Amino acid sequence: MTTPLPRPKRKKKGVGGGSGTLRADREKAGLTGSQDIHALPPEDGELLELDPETISPNPMNMRLELRNMDSLIADVREHGVHTPGIVMHTKVFMECYPQWASRVKHPERQFILGPGHRRHAAALAAGRVMPAVLRDDLARDRRVEEELVSENNSRDGLSPIEQALAIDLLRQRVHEDEDRTLSFDEVVERAGYTAGTVSKYLALLKLPQEVQQAIHVGDLSMRAGYSLSLLKDANGSKESEEAHALQLRGWGLMRDENLSVEAAKNRLALEGQKQFHAGKSPAVPVSLPEPREENSVQAGEVQAAASESTEPVTSSGGSGEAPQGQESTPAAVAVIETTETSEPTSLEPAAVDPEVLRKAAAEQRDLACRLLLAEDRYAKSAESSARLVTVVLNPNEWKQAAAKAHGWLVELKKGPSSKKRPNEYFAAVAASEDPSLMHRVAFAIGLAADEVRAAQLDRDWDARDVAHVQFLATSRASYQLSEWEQQQVERLSRVKQ
Q1: Residue 475: partners with Cβ closer than 8 Å, 6 or more residues away
Q2: Residues 6+ apart with CB under 8 A from 24
Q3: What CA–CA distance (Å, rounded) separates 58 from 93?
Q4: Residue partners of 312: CB distance under 8 A and separation at least 6
Q5: Does pLDDT of 55 surpass 60?
Protein backbone atom coordinates (compact mmCIF):
# COMPACT_ATOMS: atom_id res chain seq x y z
CA MET A 1 0.00 0.00 0.00
CA THR A 2 1.57 3.25 -1.14
CA THR A 3 -0.69 6.27 -0.77
CA PRO A 4 0.93 9.67 -1.39
CA LEU A 5 -0.47 12.57 0.56
CA PRO A 6 -1.90 15.42 -1.55
CA ARG A 7 0.79 17.22 -3.49
CA PRO A 8 1.06 20.98 -3.68
CA LYS A 9 -0.15 22.52 -6.90
CA ARG A 10 2.44 22.37 -9.61
CA LYS A 11 3.95 25.65 -10.76
CA LYS A 12 3.26 26.91 -14.23
CA LYS A 13 5.81 26.36 -16.91
CA GLY A 14 8.74 28.72 -16.69
CA VAL A 15 8.19 29.55 -13.02
CA GLY A 16 10.62 27.63 -10.86
CA GLY A 17 11.07 24.78 -13.35
CA GLY A 18 7.39 23.56 -13.42
CA SER A 19 6.28 21.52 -16.38
CA GLY A 20 3.13 23.44 -17.22
CA THR A 21 -0.55 22.48 -17.06
CA LEU A 22 -2.03 19.42 -15.44
CA ARG A 23 -3.05 18.14 -18.89
CA ALA A 24 0.55 18.44 -20.12
CA ASP A 25 1.73 16.51 -17.06
CA ARG A 26 -0.80 13.76 -17.68
CA GLU A 27 0.16 13.47 -21.32
CA LYS A 28 3.87 13.46 -20.52
CA ALA A 29 3.32 10.68 -17.96
CA GLY A 30 1.13 8.70 -20.37
CA LEU A 31 -1.89 8.84 -18.09
CA THR A 32 -5.31 8.49 -19.67
CA GLY A 33 -8.92 8.27 -18.60
CA SER A 34 -9.50 7.64 -14.94
CA GLN A 35 -5.83 7.24 -14.02
CA ASP A 36 -4.88 9.58 -11.20
CA ILE A 37 -2.05 12.09 -11.25
CA HIS A 38 -0.70 10.38 -8.09
CA ALA A 39 0.16 7.32 -10.16
CA LEU A 40 3.28 9.30 -11.06
CA PRO A 41 6.45 7.99 -9.31
CA PRO A 42 7.06 9.77 -6.00
CA GLU A 43 9.62 12.54 -6.01
CA ASP A 44 12.40 13.32 -3.55
CA GLY A 45 11.03 15.23 -0.60
CA GLU A 46 7.54 13.86 -1.04
CA LEU A 47 5.69 12.72 2.10
CA LEU A 48 4.24 9.23 1.70
CA GLU A 49 2.05 6.94 3.75
CA LEU A 50 3.55 3.47 3.36
CA ASP A 51 2.64 -0.01 4.39
CA PRO A 52 5.55 -0.90 6.73
CA GLU A 53 5.72 -4.30 5.02
CA THR A 54 7.07 -2.50 1.94
CA ILE A 55 10.05 -1.10 3.90
CA SER A 56 13.26 -2.99 4.71
CA PRO A 57 15.44 -2.12 7.73
CA ASN A 58 18.73 -0.47 6.88
CA PRO A 59 21.85 -2.59 7.47
CA MET A 60 23.68 0.60 8.45
CA ASN A 61 21.44 0.99 11.48
CA MET A 62 23.77 0.56 14.47
CA ARG A 63 21.07 -0.07 17.06
CA LEU A 64 21.97 -3.35 18.76
CA GLU A 65 18.41 -3.72 20.02
CA LEU A 66 15.11 -1.85 20.03
CA ARG A 67 14.40 -1.00 23.65
CA ASN A 68 11.27 0.22 25.45
CA MET A 69 9.01 -0.76 22.58
CA ASP A 70 5.82 -1.65 24.51
CA SER A 71 4.81 1.93 25.28
CA LEU A 72 5.69 3.10 21.76
CA ILE A 73 3.64 0.30 20.16
CA ALA A 74 0.66 1.15 22.38
CA ASP A 75 0.92 4.81 21.42
CA VAL A 76 1.22 4.04 17.70
CA ARG A 77 -1.71 1.62 17.88
CA GLU A 78 -3.88 4.37 19.35
CA HIS A 79 -2.60 7.48 17.59
CA GLY A 80 -0.44 6.32 14.68
CA VAL A 81 3.14 7.34 13.93
CA HIS A 82 3.55 11.06 14.62
CA THR A 83 6.98 11.78 13.16
CA PRO A 84 7.73 10.61 9.61
CA GLY A 85 10.78 8.48 8.98
CA ILE A 86 13.05 8.67 5.94
CA VAL A 87 13.06 6.09 3.14
CA MET A 88 14.96 5.50 -0.09
CA HIS A 89 14.22 3.20 -2.96
CA THR A 90 15.95 -0.08 -2.16
CA LYS A 91 17.28 -0.36 -5.70
CA VAL A 92 18.84 3.11 -5.52
CA PHE A 93 20.41 2.40 -2.12
CA MET A 94 21.94 -0.88 -3.27
CA GLU A 95 23.36 0.73 -6.42
CA CYS A 96 24.94 3.57 -4.45
CA TYR A 97 26.14 1.35 -1.58
CA PRO A 98 27.16 -1.93 -3.23
CA GLN A 99 29.25 -2.88 -0.18
CA TRP A 100 26.03 -3.03 1.86
CA ALA A 101 23.82 -4.65 -0.77
CA SER A 102 24.36 -8.21 0.46
CA ARG A 103 23.36 -7.19 3.98
CA VAL A 104 19.97 -5.70 3.07
CA LYS A 105 17.48 -7.89 4.93
CA HIS A 106 14.64 -7.60 2.41
CA PRO A 107 16.07 -6.59 -0.98
CA GLU A 108 12.74 -7.40 -2.65
CA ARG A 109 10.92 -4.59 -0.81
CA GLN A 110 10.44 -1.30 -2.60
CA PHE A 111 11.82 0.97 0.10
CA ILE A 112 14.62 0.91 2.65
CA LEU A 113 14.77 2.98 5.83
CA GLY A 114 17.10 5.76 6.75
CA PRO A 115 16.32 6.97 10.32
CA GLY A 116 13.13 5.66 11.93
CA HIS A 117 13.68 2.01 12.89
CA ARG A 118 11.80 2.12 16.20
CA ARG A 119 8.83 3.83 14.55
CA HIS A 120 8.90 1.30 11.72
CA ALA A 121 8.93 -1.63 14.17
CA ALA A 122 6.06 -0.08 16.13
CA ALA A 123 4.02 0.47 12.98
CA LEU A 124 4.57 -3.17 11.98
CA ALA A 125 3.50 -4.42 15.42
CA ALA A 126 0.47 -2.08 15.61
CA GLY A 127 -0.69 -2.63 12.02
CA ARG A 128 -0.57 1.08 11.21
CA VAL A 129 0.81 2.93 8.19
CA MET A 130 4.27 4.49 8.29
CA PRO A 131 4.55 8.14 7.20
CA ALA A 132 7.93 8.70 5.55
CA VAL A 133 9.75 11.26 3.43
CA LEU A 134 11.40 9.94 0.26
CA ARG A 135 15.08 10.90 0.14
CA ASP A 136 16.86 9.05 -2.66
CA ASP A 137 19.28 11.97 -2.77
CA LEU A 138 20.83 10.75 0.52
CA ALA A 139 21.88 7.52 -1.17
CA ARG A 140 23.02 9.21 -4.39
CA ASP A 141 25.12 11.72 -2.45
CA ARG A 142 26.28 8.99 -0.06
CA ARG A 143 25.10 10.86 3.00
CA VAL A 144 23.07 8.09 4.66
CA GLU A 145 25.70 7.65 7.42
CA GLU A 146 25.59 11.34 8.27
CA GLU A 147 21.81 11.31 8.43
CA LEU A 148 21.82 8.33 10.79
CA VAL A 149 24.38 9.96 13.11
CA SER A 150 22.56 13.30 13.01
CA GLU A 151 19.29 11.60 13.86
CA ASN A 152 20.96 9.74 16.73
CA ASN A 153 22.19 13.02 18.22
CA SER A 154 18.59 14.17 18.68
CA ARG A 155 17.19 10.84 19.91
CA ASP A 156 17.11 9.32 23.38
CA GLY A 157 17.59 5.66 24.13
CA LEU A 158 20.80 4.93 22.24
CA SER A 159 23.54 3.37 24.33
CA PRO A 160 27.08 4.82 24.17
CA ILE A 161 28.18 1.73 22.23
CA GLU A 162 25.45 2.23 19.64
CA GLN A 163 26.46 5.87 19.27
CA ALA A 164 30.09 4.81 18.94
CA LEU A 165 29.19 2.30 16.22
CA ALA A 166 27.33 4.99 14.30
CA ILE A 167 30.33 7.33 14.45
CA ASP A 168 32.62 4.47 13.42
CA LEU A 169 30.33 3.82 10.46
CA LEU A 170 30.75 7.44 9.42
CA ARG A 171 34.52 7.16 9.91
CA GLN A 172 34.66 4.26 7.47
CA ARG A 173 32.61 5.89 4.75
CA VAL A 174 34.25 6.91 1.49
CA HIS A 175 34.52 10.57 0.62
CA GLU A 176 31.93 11.41 -2.02
CA ASP A 177 34.43 13.13 -4.31
CA GLU A 178 37.57 11.10 -3.63
CA ASP A 179 38.53 7.47 -3.24
CA ARG A 180 39.43 7.74 0.45
CA THR A 181 37.83 7.46 3.85
CA LEU A 182 36.95 10.59 5.79
CA SER A 183 39.63 12.22 7.91
CA PHE A 184 39.12 12.55 11.65
CA ASP A 185 38.34 16.26 11.32
CA GLU A 186 35.74 15.50 8.64
CA VAL A 187 34.14 12.88 10.87
CA VAL A 188 33.98 15.40 13.74
CA GLU A 189 32.39 18.03 11.48
CA ARG A 190 29.79 15.68 10.02
CA ALA A 191 28.97 13.83 13.24
CA GLY A 192 28.07 17.01 15.09
CA TYR A 193 30.15 16.17 18.18
CA THR A 194 33.31 17.73 19.55
CA ALA A 195 36.65 16.13 18.70
CA GLY A 196 37.07 14.95 22.29
CA THR A 197 33.64 13.31 22.32
CA VAL A 198 34.32 11.51 19.04
CA SER A 199 37.66 10.23 20.38
CA LYS A 200 36.02 8.92 23.55
CA TYR A 201 33.23 7.18 21.67
CA LEU A 202 35.66 5.47 19.30
CA ALA A 203 37.88 4.41 22.22
CA LEU A 204 34.96 2.37 23.62
CA LEU A 205 35.05 0.13 20.55
CA LYS A 206 38.61 -0.93 21.40
CA LEU A 207 37.57 -2.40 24.75
CA PRO A 208 37.00 -6.16 25.20
CA GLN A 209 33.50 -7.30 24.17
CA GLU A 210 32.52 -8.08 27.76
CA VAL A 211 33.26 -4.49 28.81
CA GLN A 212 31.46 -3.10 25.74
CA GLN A 213 28.40 -5.17 26.64
CA ALA A 214 28.46 -3.79 30.19
CA ILE A 215 28.46 -0.24 28.79
CA HIS A 216 25.70 -1.08 26.33
CA VAL A 217 23.31 -2.45 28.97
CA GLY A 218 24.09 0.37 31.39
CA ASP A 219 26.09 -1.54 34.01
CA LEU A 220 29.15 0.63 33.27
CA SER A 221 29.10 4.34 32.43
CA MET A 222 30.69 5.77 29.32
CA ARG A 223 33.10 7.82 31.46
CA ALA A 224 34.25 4.77 33.40
CA GLY A 225 34.51 2.72 30.19
CA TYR A 226 36.68 5.37 28.59
CA SER A 227 38.90 5.46 31.68
CA LEU A 228 39.37 1.69 31.46
CA SER A 229 40.23 1.99 27.76
CA LEU A 230 43.31 4.01 28.75
CA LEU A 231 44.90 1.03 30.51
CA LYS A 232 48.00 -0.09 28.58
CA ASP A 233 50.31 -3.05 28.52
CA ALA A 234 54.03 -2.86 29.20
CA ASN A 235 54.65 -1.73 25.61
CA GLY A 236 52.10 1.08 25.73
CA SER A 237 49.42 -0.70 23.68
CA LYS A 238 45.75 -0.41 24.65
CA GLU A 239 44.52 -3.19 22.37
CA SER A 240 46.84 -6.12 23.06
CA GLU A 241 45.76 -9.25 24.93
CA GLU A 242 47.65 -8.03 27.98
CA ALA A 243 45.92 -4.63 27.88
CA HIS A 244 42.53 -6.28 27.41
CA ALA A 245 43.24 -8.53 30.39
CA LEU A 246 43.92 -5.44 32.52
CA GLN A 247 40.73 -3.77 31.29
CA LEU A 248 38.70 -6.88 32.07
CA ARG A 249 40.32 -7.15 35.50
CA GLY A 250 39.48 -3.49 36.17
CA TRP A 251 35.84 -4.02 35.23
CA GLY A 252 35.74 -7.16 37.37
CA LEU A 253 36.96 -5.21 40.41
CA MET A 254 34.34 -2.52 39.83
CA ARG A 255 31.57 -5.07 39.43
CA ASP A 256 32.50 -7.52 42.17
CA GLU A 257 33.84 -5.14 44.83
CA ASN A 258 31.79 -2.06 43.93
CA LEU A 259 34.93 0.01 43.36
CA SER A 260 35.06 3.27 41.45
CA VAL A 261 37.07 3.20 38.23
CA GLU A 262 39.82 5.21 39.91
CA ALA A 263 40.02 2.76 42.83
CA ALA A 264 40.02 -0.20 40.43
CA LYS A 265 42.92 1.27 38.46
CA ASN A 266 44.79 1.90 41.70
CA ARG A 267 44.26 -1.72 42.70
CA LEU A 268 45.68 -2.80 39.35
CA ALA A 269 48.73 -0.63 39.94
CA LEU A 270 49.26 -2.28 43.32
CA GLU A 271 48.79 -5.74 41.86
CA GLY A 272 51.17 -4.93 39.04
CA GLN A 273 54.23 -4.53 41.22
CA LYS A 274 56.92 -7.05 40.25
CA GLN A 275 57.23 -8.54 43.69
CA PHE A 276 55.39 -11.15 45.71
CA HIS A 277 52.38 -9.92 47.58
CA ALA A 278 53.49 -8.93 51.04
CA GLY A 279 52.79 -11.58 53.61
CA LYS A 280 52.14 -14.49 51.26
CA SER A 281 54.60 -17.36 51.19
CA PRO A 282 55.32 -17.68 47.49
CA ALA A 283 55.33 -21.00 45.69
CA VAL A 284 58.75 -20.77 44.08
CA PRO A 285 59.33 -23.54 41.54
CA VAL A 286 62.29 -25.64 42.73
CA SER A 287 64.15 -28.04 40.46
CA LEU A 288 64.37 -31.53 41.92
CA PRO A 289 68.02 -32.48 42.63
CA GLU A 290 69.79 -35.54 41.33
CA PRO A 291 69.95 -38.48 43.82
CA ARG A 292 72.69 -37.80 46.37
CA GLU A 293 75.78 -39.92 46.86
CA GLU A 294 76.47 -41.27 50.34
CA ASN A 295 79.29 -38.78 50.91
CA SER A 296 77.27 -35.75 49.78
CA VAL A 297 76.19 -33.03 52.18
CA GLN A 298 73.17 -33.59 54.38
CA ALA A 299 69.83 -31.90 53.85
CA GLY A 300 70.42 -29.42 56.66
CA GLU A 301 73.73 -28.38 55.13
CA VAL A 302 72.01 -27.84 51.80
CA GLN A 303 69.52 -25.55 53.50
CA ALA A 304 72.21 -23.53 55.26
CA ALA A 305 74.25 -23.10 52.10
CA ALA A 306 71.22 -22.02 50.15
CA SER A 307 70.25 -19.52 52.83
CA GLU A 308 73.66 -17.90 52.70
CA SER A 309 73.47 -17.47 48.94
CA THR A 310 69.94 -16.13 48.74
CA GLU A 311 69.58 -12.37 48.28
CA PRO A 312 66.73 -10.53 50.01
CA VAL A 313 63.77 -9.40 47.95
CA THR A 314 63.58 -5.78 46.86
CA SER A 315 60.59 -3.91 45.50
CA SER A 316 60.22 -2.87 41.90
CA GLY A 317 60.69 0.70 42.97
CA GLY A 318 64.13 0.10 44.47
CA SER A 319 67.51 -0.68 43.00
CA GLY A 320 67.31 -4.44 43.40
CA GLU A 321 65.56 -5.38 40.15
CA ALA A 322 66.49 -8.70 38.61
CA PRO A 323 68.80 -8.64 35.59
CA GLN A 324 67.09 -8.41 32.23
CA GLY A 325 65.58 -11.72 31.16
CA GLN A 326 65.34 -13.03 34.74
CA GLU A 327 62.44 -12.87 37.16
CA SER A 328 62.86 -11.54 40.68
CA THR A 329 62.00 -14.20 43.27
CA PRO A 330 61.28 -13.81 46.97
CA ALA A 331 63.67 -14.84 49.72
CA ALA A 332 62.18 -18.23 50.46
CA VAL A 333 64.13 -21.48 50.43
CA ALA A 334 62.56 -24.91 50.07
CA VAL A 335 63.81 -27.62 52.42
CA ILE A 336 64.16 -30.85 50.47
CA GLU A 337 63.82 -34.06 52.42
CA THR A 338 64.84 -37.38 50.85
CA THR A 339 63.97 -41.00 51.45
CA GLU A 340 66.42 -43.82 51.95
CA THR A 341 66.42 -44.28 48.18
CA SER A 342 67.45 -40.66 47.77
CA GLU A 343 64.18 -39.82 45.94
CA PRO A 344 62.78 -36.36 46.77
CA THR A 345 59.43 -36.65 48.52
CA SER A 346 58.26 -33.20 49.56
CA LEU A 347 58.84 -29.51 49.07
CA GLU A 348 58.04 -27.18 51.94
CA PRO A 349 58.75 -23.45 51.64
CA ALA A 350 60.59 -22.10 54.64
CA ALA A 351 58.80 -19.52 56.73
CA VAL A 352 59.43 -16.02 55.42
CA ASP A 353 61.19 -13.71 57.87
CA PRO A 354 58.54 -11.44 59.51
CA GLU A 355 60.83 -8.48 58.98
CA VAL A 356 60.84 -9.18 55.23
CA LEU A 357 57.04 -9.38 55.28
CA ARG A 358 56.79 -6.12 57.19
CA LYS A 359 59.11 -4.31 54.78
CA ALA A 360 57.22 -5.65 51.77
CA ALA A 361 53.91 -4.51 53.28
CA ALA A 362 55.37 -1.05 53.88
CA GLU A 363 56.44 -0.80 50.22
CA GLN A 364 52.93 -1.72 49.12
CA ARG A 365 51.39 0.87 51.45
CA ASP A 366 53.84 3.52 50.25
CA LEU A 367 52.64 2.96 46.69
CA ALA A 368 49.02 3.04 47.87
CA CYS A 369 49.65 6.42 49.53
CA ARG A 370 51.14 7.83 46.33
CA LEU A 371 48.24 6.51 44.26
CA LEU A 372 45.79 8.11 46.66
CA LEU A 373 47.54 11.49 46.59
CA ALA A 374 47.51 11.43 42.79
CA GLU A 375 43.68 11.43 42.84
CA ASP A 376 41.70 14.63 42.52
CA ARG A 377 39.40 13.46 45.32
CA TYR A 378 41.91 11.92 47.68
CA ALA A 379 40.05 12.17 51.00
CA LYS A 380 37.06 13.70 52.69
CA SER A 381 37.66 16.85 54.71
CA ALA A 382 37.09 15.05 58.02
CA GLU A 383 39.67 12.39 57.16
CA SER A 384 42.19 15.05 56.14
CA SER A 385 41.62 17.09 59.30
CA ALA A 386 41.97 14.06 61.55
CA ARG A 387 45.40 13.22 60.16
CA LEU A 388 46.63 16.78 60.39
CA VAL A 389 45.47 17.03 64.02
CA THR A 390 47.33 13.81 64.84
CA VAL A 391 50.64 15.03 63.45
CA VAL A 392 50.27 18.46 65.07
CA LEU A 393 49.72 16.78 68.44
CA ASN A 394 52.84 14.64 67.89
CA PRO A 395 55.52 17.20 66.91
CA ASN A 396 58.29 14.61 67.05
CA GLU A 397 56.76 12.99 63.97
CA TRP A 398 56.84 16.17 61.91
CA LYS A 399 60.35 16.03 60.43
CA GLN A 400 60.17 12.48 59.03
CA ALA A 401 56.55 12.92 57.91
CA ALA A 402 57.37 16.16 56.10
CA ALA A 403 60.32 14.56 54.30
CA LYS A 404 58.23 11.60 53.10
CA ALA A 405 55.28 13.81 52.09
CA HIS A 406 57.64 16.11 50.19
CA GLY A 407 59.04 13.15 48.27
CA TRP A 408 55.56 11.91 47.35
CA LEU A 409 54.29 15.32 46.23
CA VAL A 410 57.36 16.20 44.15
CA GLU A 411 57.19 12.81 42.43
CA LEU A 412 53.52 13.44 41.65
CA LYS A 413 54.30 16.97 40.43
CA LYS A 414 51.98 18.57 42.97
CA GLY A 415 53.04 22.05 44.02
CA PRO A 416 56.30 23.96 43.46
CA SER A 417 58.60 21.23 42.11
CA SER A 418 61.52 23.71 41.85
CA LYS A 419 61.84 23.67 45.64
CA LYS A 420 64.27 20.85 46.45
CA ARG A 421 64.17 21.07 50.23
CA PRO A 422 61.03 20.25 52.28
CA ASN A 423 61.11 23.47 54.28
CA GLU A 424 61.37 25.60 51.13
CA TYR A 425 58.65 23.56 49.46
CA PHE A 426 56.16 23.93 52.33
CA ALA A 427 56.93 27.63 52.68
CA ALA A 428 56.17 28.11 48.98
CA VAL A 429 52.91 26.17 49.34
CA ALA A 430 51.87 28.33 52.30
CA ALA A 431 52.57 31.48 50.29
CA SER A 432 50.74 30.23 47.20
CA GLU A 433 47.27 31.19 48.46
CA ASP A 434 46.01 28.05 46.72
CA PRO A 435 43.55 26.43 49.18
CA SER A 436 43.30 23.21 47.18
CA LEU A 437 47.07 22.71 47.12
CA MET A 438 47.43 23.60 50.81
CA HIS A 439 44.79 21.05 51.80
CA ARG A 440 46.44 18.35 49.70
CA VAL A 441 49.87 19.05 51.21
CA ALA A 442 48.47 19.08 54.76
CA PHE A 443 46.75 15.77 54.16
CA ALA A 444 49.95 14.34 52.67
CA ILE A 445 51.91 15.23 55.83
CA GLY A 446 49.29 13.58 58.05
CA LEU A 447 49.18 10.49 55.83
CA ALA A 448 53.00 10.32 55.80
CA ALA A 449 53.11 10.55 59.60
CA ASP A 450 50.85 7.49 59.86
CA GLU A 451 52.87 5.60 57.26
CA VAL A 452 56.29 6.41 58.78
CA ARG A 453 55.02 5.19 62.12
CA ALA A 454 53.49 1.98 60.70
CA ALA A 455 56.69 1.17 58.79
CA GLN A 456 58.95 1.27 61.86
CA LEU A 457 60.37 -2.19 62.50
CA ASP A 458 61.16 -1.70 66.19
CA ARG A 459 57.63 -1.25 67.52
CA ASP A 460 54.44 -3.26 67.71
CA TRP A 461 51.36 -2.09 65.91
CA ASP A 462 48.55 -0.39 67.78
CA ALA A 463 45.06 0.91 66.98
CA ARG A 464 46.42 3.88 65.04
CA ASP A 465 48.28 1.59 62.66
CA VAL A 466 45.16 -0.51 62.12
CA ALA A 467 43.16 2.65 61.39
CA HIS A 468 45.81 3.65 58.86
CA VAL A 469 45.64 0.44 56.79
CA GLN A 470 41.86 0.31 57.05
CA PHE A 471 41.67 3.85 55.71
CA LEU A 472 43.88 2.90 52.74
CA ALA A 473 41.70 -0.15 52.10
CA THR A 474 38.46 1.85 52.02
CA SER A 475 39.88 4.86 50.17
CA ARG A 476 40.34 5.27 46.43
CA ALA A 477 43.70 3.60 46.80
CA SER A 478 41.73 0.35 47.24
CA TYR A 479 44.59 -1.18 49.19
CA GLN A 480 44.46 -4.89 50.04
CA LEU A 481 45.89 -5.82 53.43
CA SER A 482 48.67 -8.38 53.31
CA GLU A 483 48.46 -11.51 55.41
CA TRP A 484 50.94 -10.01 57.89
CA GLU A 485 48.79 -6.88 58.26
CA GLN A 486 45.65 -8.97 58.65
CA GLN A 487 47.35 -10.86 61.43
CA GLN A 488 48.10 -7.59 63.25
CA VAL A 489 44.50 -6.44 62.89
CA GLU A 490 43.22 -9.76 64.24
CA ARG A 491 45.72 -9.73 67.12
CA LEU A 492 44.69 -6.24 68.21
CA SER A 493 41.04 -7.16 67.82
CA ARG A 494 41.48 -10.08 70.19
CA VAL A 495 43.33 -7.87 72.69
CA LYS A 496 40.54 -5.31 72.56
CA GLN A 497 37.95 -7.97 73.26
Answers
A1: 263, 372, 378, 379
A2: 13
A3: 10
A4: 320, 331, 356
A5: yes
